[in-house]
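Quick question: what would this complex look like in 3D?
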Amino acid sequence: MTQFPETATAALAAAGGARVAWIRSRMALLAALREEFRRERPFAGRRIGVSLHIEPKTAVLLEVLAEGGAEIVGTGNHGSTQDDIVAFLRGQGIGVFGSRADTLDDHHANLARVLDARPDILLDNGADLAAGTVERGTAGAIIGGTEETTSGGDRLRGELMGKVPFPSIVINDSPLKAIGENKHAVGQSVVESFMRITNLMVPGRRFCVVGYGWCGRGIAQYLRALGGRVAIVEVDEIKALEAALDGYRVAPLADLAPWAEVFITATGRPGVLPAEAIGAMADGAVLANSGHFSWEIDVDGLRSMTRAETDLDGTLRRFDLANGRHVVLVADGRMFNLAGVAPKGNSIESMDIGFMLQALSLQRVALSAAGLAPGAQPVPDDINRRIARAMLAAMGAAR
Amino acid sequence: MTQFPETATAALAAAGGARVAWIRSRMALLAALREEFRRERPFAGRRIGVSLHIEPKTAVLLEVLAEGGAEIVGTGNHGSTQDDIVAFLRGQGIGVFGSRADTLDDHHANLARVLDARPDILLDNGADLAAGTVERGTAGAIIGGTEETTSGGDRLRGELMGKVPFPSIVINDSPLKAIGENKHAVGQSVVESFMRITNLMVPGRRFCVVGYGWCGRGIAQYLRALGGRVAIVEVDEIKALEAALDGYRVAPLADLAPWAEVFITATGRPGVLPAEAIGAMADGAVLANSGHFSWEIDVDGLRSMTRAETDLDGTLRRFDLANGRHVVLVADGRMFNLAGVAPKGNSIESMDIGFMLQALSLQRVALSAAGLAPGAQPVPDDINRRIARAMLAAMGAAR
Amino acid sequence: MTQFPETATAALAAAGGARVAWIRSRMALLAALREEFRRERPFAGRRIGVSLHIEPKTAVLLEVLAEGGAEIVGTGNHGSTQDDIVAFLRGQGIGVFGSRADTLDDHHANLARVLDARPDILLDNGADLAAGTVERGTAGAIIGGTEETTSGGDRLRGELMGKVPFPSIVINDSPLKAIGENKHAVGQSVVESFMRITNLMVPGRRFCVVGYGWCGRGIAQYLRALGGRVAIVEVDEIKALEAALDGYRVAPLADLAPWAEVFITATGRPGVLPAEAIGAMADGAVLANSGHFSWEIDVDGLRSMTRAETDLDGTLRRFDLANGRHVVLVADGRMFNLAGVAPKGNSIESMDIGFMLQALSLQRVALSAAGLAPGAQPVPDDINRRIARAMLAAMGAAR
Amino acid sequence: MTQFPETATAALAAAGGARVAWIRSRMALLAALREEFRRERPFAGRRIGVSLHIEPKTAVLLEVLAEGGAEIVGTGNHGSTQDDIVAFLRGQGIGVFGSRADTLDDHHANLARVLDARPDILLDNGADLAAGTVERGTAGAIIGGTEETTSGGDRLRGELMGKVPFPSIVINDSPLKAIGENKHAVGQSVVESFMRITNLMVPGRRFCVVGYGWCGRGIAQYLRALGGRVAIVEVDEIKALEAALDGYRVAPLADLAPWAEVFITATGRPGVLPAEAIGAMADGAVLANSGHFSWEIDVDGLRSMTRAETDLDGTLRRFDLANGRHVVLVADGRMFNLAGVAPKGNSIESMDIGFMLQALSLQRVALSAAGLAPGAQPVPDDINRRIARAMLAAMGAAR
């Protein structure tokens, strides 16, 4: 790894290591797999190119892959890389680089360096690495890989269709992600973040959840379970009927804008909370987005209606509107379950499931790539079932 | 309709009519469709052959089809036909026949008479009429139809594949059935029936629900919501993990047999409550089946372990086992949400949805059969969406 | 018992006995007490005068008291006596009389005959027997007794204050009644009765529960748990705030009248659903009362606004109003959880708790009347605790 | 206020002010009262001696009292005073002093200085100020006051009985505290803190809640609502039966020790999680206390069984036991809903209710002390009802 600039100090690495320790001790599935990989070394002689958010939970995944014999060459997402974790991983001989302060150019350079290292397996995110190999004409040297996101899967099935000669297993399409992460873990982290950031009472409060997909229904269920009064906006009639039969008020945003006190978006689509609706809200409405992209709340539109803007505490921002009322925006419209002081993100166990999908899919690629069709494909059913069984056992569900 | 023996008395018809009135007044979707059909007469000149459970709710569907111009020629399922409803419908000029006392031979004769009437559209159940036309070589005269059940759909895609030249829309495969009926309505009717038949307390009681499909999860959710302590048996690992993350104990039946006080099966599969498990149950365990078929509880096996059998009230039956304990079987292992005194079955509104699927699918067949592929097929998406929108409006979900 | 006319036939007694058998087999607390009473005979030589609703569950209580050595002389409430149970009890040598067809004069004569028999302990209801002894000047011959109702307790502390020289333990004031019966059992029986009688869907339906006392909150909790959208009317500000923090919409009846689809009263007070509110309801609103008295819904006022009245099925009655809309009244405004075909009333186990309070309080009177103060008093704390422990054990709460 | 050392810097005051701003903007009840007090000046000419936790929420209360004309002379609890809030308040001319670094001697000196200032009304905590006036013989100069805690109330009714000649209204005994704070707000902050501190999954996790009082039932309800599997330990039989009927497993700690994964104490009593139970727990059990006192978990006993102790992150501490298993203790057994990074404590609105009780009770004392009996007494009923009405309106419960 000497080709990378050595910037991590021992102190930073120690701090990162301390943060990883608690998480590692609670990832029961990866802990068992670590032992198996140590014995069986499925990645011996393999170099895995990684593009993945670098934080304490991913660190445990990378450790386990390394334990399985992989040489890791990786980088994070732009702007979210945690320097202490980079330092910690490098101290373990795991080749990640990049830092939170990187410019976009730096980030692209980092991706290029991953490809320069000539990986033969990819752990990809948004199909960035896959596209890079196509561009360089080196895709043929890749035996296969995984793709973390649905949007990366769409890219593989879209613009990259026919150009990627290797199998790419799309992790986010696994039913275990919908069950374990999108519904329960996102629901949990959203309600935790709402309470942690705002300190507002949930019981009796009127919430409008925009979107009744897997994430939206987890959020709605948990808010209601804590005593919140929850209404749903959903454009798909079938999902809207599900919400109504689940006991929610289901109404157009125009009806709910003056009614709700808190609006949480969870659609993945742009502009679902437009300026017009914000203008109709009651004084003091709180707006938060739980979706991956920052586009669900029309912040520009909001700003255009605003007389004065006040930062309340770095995470909450008050907008005094020209109409004489004010609204409070959480985390500038970014995914607020990772915002504020001391955010924890999705629960450790939900990420244990998600990273087991990664680790076992990469193992399948390493050992049986020839048996897999080229291109984007779902996680093999036997892997889903093995993880479900392991999780049930780890949870002690039968007790 | 004079070819049918006239057995219905005016009194019987009046009794049936009274039972239909309340239901008709609460089927808002069919009520609106009735007006539309009256104006547009989509079935004018059509004869619809019907094989469907004959009870007050189906009566409303048949009325609406008749209002749309259809001539109805139909019969019920064996053993469940309600004579007052037959009398009532015949009094309205709707041609149904058969009676509860019919033998199996009578039932087959009734089905034959439906086909003898040369219908051009079928409202089928278990593909009995479709198979009959194939056997008679008259399938070519049918322009299309609907099939109520998934098992009928399987039959069309199995033994009848390629032999049925007309389109058959399989109602039970619509997402609205899973949402509106299998989860919510079955869940509601099962908890209502448990309370009505046994008069036992739900709060704090230990239930074992066998099966975590749509029906099982509705049952589990409602029992828990009423204060029951619910554990799940589920052989599919993915569904089992869902159950565990939904907060249920999930364990093998062998673990739960001595723990639970009430066992409810909802799998659709035979023998899921075998004699061996029954022998391990605690004294006084209550056994009930909510699935369509009577085979989920091994009643023969239970009987073979029994020293003495006592009828408690016609619906509850006590079995004193050779092991010194006793169990109580509900409704002889038949679908118990239609058992006991004064059963009501699924809620009126859930059947309003189900019969809207029938009525609009039959309309599609009547008006656009040529645009449909032959064989079993799902309900057209636009019909699902139209009904979802209508139901949201009828529920006043936005209020 | 030969002084009573012998009207019960063997067939009637057998029918009553069959109805009692299932209930007796599920009253675990009374079953254990029966064994204890058989050994210890706490009532040996005592005659207990009884005024209590006569139905299958009370039969088990009376059997247990008889097993404890008591001679029973009793009668039921006016209009609710179940003749088969009278016949069954008399066949067991338990002296109850009266019949459902009794006139009010007959009922008063029955009460007189109970007092004529010179009981020395009273199991009273509404303080009718206690008042009778005061009137006759025979109260001095009573060593003590129990009073089932709070209103009877109020009477003892009001008009009868100082005139009743014996201790009377008021059963309904026990915390176990609020917990076991008023909240959970009434809640369960109300939702069961709503579904059984109306066959309407609960999920997504808009309910207005009038009253947030113990009964109202049980009803609200269970309806919401089944997917209902529930709003509360409550005049007491503190309880109203509890309801709001429990996540309910809490509003004046005037606001909710046009919103809700179903109105359920649970206040114990007259006229809480007045004609004015009924006139503001949406077409098709359903009105039901769960309180003990029939006065909560202003049926006379409703009638005065009505153009036409139609009996739908003996339990549901349609009122077409002068304003062009209609409402549906359940059970003529009487307590509807005991109405309709095949009502079961409160769960067996909840009555097991209630009758244990009776049996142990009567035992206390029989064995230690001298240690009790005269007049109305609560159930001794040790009796409440003994029953709570026994119920926890019977439920297997620790499993 | 010049008699106090001026230590607060402007920067500190500004930081404190920023933290107060968001909270002030969300305390709707105090905001309205502030306007009323500004007009009516109920405390004009009065000096209020204050002993109360000094943090952002109390700052809003003190501002409102000052707005009502009061001169404030106060100090905080030992060890919890927030220096930026002291600085902020002093900058507003509100006389509070003390700092987080104070020794116990410093704290006592601070209390003495409050009394030296000769207040005529007390806002007391644990009856510390009341006891001080008795000791000094200056109690006669106090016209009345409030006492925040139940334990202070007990002290007034115990050792100080007959010695305190002025009325003291005990805030914590108000039903609004049980409803608004102990159940809902503590429940909310406990689940938020558990998720924030541990990042563990709640769905499917096995929790043991020790204590089923107001706090315990809020905690249990919310954990279960989020998908947790919750069991209860409760020594009082009546509360235990309530828990069982609410659908929880209720068992002795000895049964639950090896079953649960997380133990949360909420009893107010010492040693409810003794070393013996900890020794029986499964590997990795997490222990947390939500009660006010740090004595519920036997930390000394735990330590005596421990081979090695590791600080994980300042809030979580791992104890490797001599038996080969380990447990994780949260916040050293102190009230963990105020522990960890960025704790927020009870919701803003719940404290708005609590401080309205303070402000209106102090107003009653200021204006009508002569109408109040001396000694400890409950919040006047009209004050409770006024606040309940105001809160319902502020919540928009009717919408």
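Answer marked as accepted. Residues 169 and 379 of chain A are 6 Å apart (CA to CA).
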